[in-house]
Q: What sequence folds into this?
């Protein structure tokens, strides 16, 4: 048993404050799927931390304490796991990959993914990243010339799918230049369905399928077919390269290197006694596509919500981007990209106010005591992210969109000006948990940061961008990640 805090009197989950619910339904009727995260945050403000609500008869504890979140996230995979229904449902989708896998199988897969998304790998991949960004620029140039309103979320998802697929699987689907892309429409169904089924009080789809469920099943069949084809082509390339690589490796006295994540996973699967199957590889391909697509696209889209309504900020970012890019339309190299801190800060600050991951859901693998509460193994835990990011003790003037708060130089100048660090205002990066923390922290965060820098610098250096909707009308929709309801923009060439 583990005690994270020794309370004087131990409370049980049932003793925690709770919003009033109904017999059998619990609080389900108060949690509309698209906005349930907002209700959970409102209850946190009213009831404090921790509190408990009920999905039907299942109690879910809700926590809003940064140090506790760090402790729980750090003590994985031994003491806590992800919320078990996520793994159960993702298994049914054929998507039980790195995000949801638990136990001993997690570590070898984590190592492969970390390597594939490592800084040296992304640095080597940079020219391709820049080429895909140039493709996005051409798409936006055509829209600007035609005077079209651009669905920025859709375009950004095309960009992130092309990037992830090319980097991780060695194949470029070029969704940016192919108008109707089925794979993307099919992938888009996965996260909303995951959330709907994770939160469903009964697994109705095991007994009856509604049209939405049937459409989803068809989409998953098509996605898996696509992935199997991808794997077959990767194997063919590996065979073709094997002889040449083996020869070179012999000369260099090294082992042949797989050239991307998919090849590395296939090579691991083929090792005697690996215990890894083709289904595991396929699940990880799908995991990478889903984990890398919407999260990054959404983070950039939320930054556009603020940029698109603020001409002065655009002028400033445009000048900075032009300075770094020189005459180029897209940031020309990895070194220059590292100067684009402001572009990343635009996204970091947007996701502080509109977190892409409003909460992380976990459960202990053994009985634990947290803040004087006894949690039996398997107790559902939601760790809320936003309240701490809106707490003035963590971030000065927390309601204000202020990307500068994330810039090192700016903070140093402020310190020098006041001569006293205490006067610079609160800035607590530990309260920003958009990528999680601990051993299962997001392995894609560096790639995501490079994508943010490339896209926003390209956009601001080449275009002016205006929201084609009143920003007040843009709502947060929770479909596992919290996405903007829309982000239509009008672009004009600079
Ligand atoms: C702004 C963009 C992104 C955000 C906000 C984000 C957020 C997250 C969060 C909150 C987690 C859970 C971390 C935890 O449990 O501590 C996670 C895990 C993960 N992310 Fe990301 N992510 C982003 C981009 C990406 C990208 C680009 C990729 C890959 C191409 C990726 C792949 C993954 C994977 C595979 C995991 C599971 C890791 C594990 O359980 O070991 N993510 N991400």
A:
């Amino acid at each position: 048993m583990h005690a994270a805090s020794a309370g004087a009197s131990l409370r049980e989950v049932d003793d925690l404050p709770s919003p009033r619910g109904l017999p059998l339904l619990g609080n389900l009727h108060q949690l509309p799927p698209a906005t349930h995260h907002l209700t959970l945050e409102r209850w946190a403000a009213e009831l404090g931390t921790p509190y408990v609500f009920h999905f039907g008869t299942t109690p879910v504890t809700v926590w809003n304490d940064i140090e506790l979140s760090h402790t729980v996230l750090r003590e994985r995979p031994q003491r806590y796991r992800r919320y078990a229904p996520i793994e159960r449902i993702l298994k049914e989708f054929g998507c039980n990959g790195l995000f949801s896998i638990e136990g001993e199988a997690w570590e070898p897969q984590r190592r492969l993914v970390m390597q594939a998304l490592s800084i040296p790998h992304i640095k080597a991949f940079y020219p391709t990243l820049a080429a895909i960004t140039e493709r996005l620029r051409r798409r936006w140039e055509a829209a600007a010339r035609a005077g079209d309103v651009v669905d920025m979320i859709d375009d950004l998802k095309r960009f992130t799918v092309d990037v992830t697929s090319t980097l991780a699987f060695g194949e470029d689907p070029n969704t940016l230049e192919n108008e109707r892309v089925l794979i993307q429409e099919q992938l888009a169904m996965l996260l909303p369905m995951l959330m709907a089924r994770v939160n469903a009080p009964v697994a109705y789809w095991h007994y009856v399928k509604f049209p939405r469920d049937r459409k989803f099943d068809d989409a998953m069949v098509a996605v898996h077919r696509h992935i199997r084809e991808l794997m077959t082509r990767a194997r063919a390339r590996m065979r073709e390269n094997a002889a040449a690589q083996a020869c070179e490796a012999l000369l260099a006295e090294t082992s042949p290197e797989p050239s991307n994540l998919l090849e590395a996973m296939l090579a691991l699967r083929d090792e005697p006694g690996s215990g890894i199957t083709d289904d595991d590889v396929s699940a990880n391909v799908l995991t990478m596509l889903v984990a890398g697509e919407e999260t990054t696209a959404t983070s950039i889209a939320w930054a556009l919500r603020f940029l698109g309504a603020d001409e002065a900020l655009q002028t400033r970012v445009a000048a900075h981007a032009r300075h770094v890019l020189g005459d180029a339309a897209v940031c020309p190299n990895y070194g220059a990209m590292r100067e684009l801190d402001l572009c990343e800060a635009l996204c970091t600050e947007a996701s502080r106010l509109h977190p892409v991951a409003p909460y992380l859901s976990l459960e202990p693998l053994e009985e634990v005591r947290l803040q004087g509460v006894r949690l039996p193994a398997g107790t559902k835990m939601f760790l809320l992210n936003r309240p701490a990011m809106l707490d003035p003790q963590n971030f000065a003037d927390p309601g204000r969109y202020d990307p500068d708060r994330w810039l090192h130089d700016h903070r140093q100048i402020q310190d020098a000006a006041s001569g006293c660090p205490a006067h610079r205002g609160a800035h607590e990066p530990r309260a920003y948990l958009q990528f999680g923390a601990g051993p299962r922290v997001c392995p894609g965060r560096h790639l995501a940061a490079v994508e943010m820098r490339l896209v926003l610098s390209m956009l601001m250096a080449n275009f002016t961008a205006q929201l084609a909707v009143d920003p007040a009308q843009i709502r947060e929709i929770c479909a596992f990640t919290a996405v903007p309801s829309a982000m239509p923009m009008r672009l004009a060439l600079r």
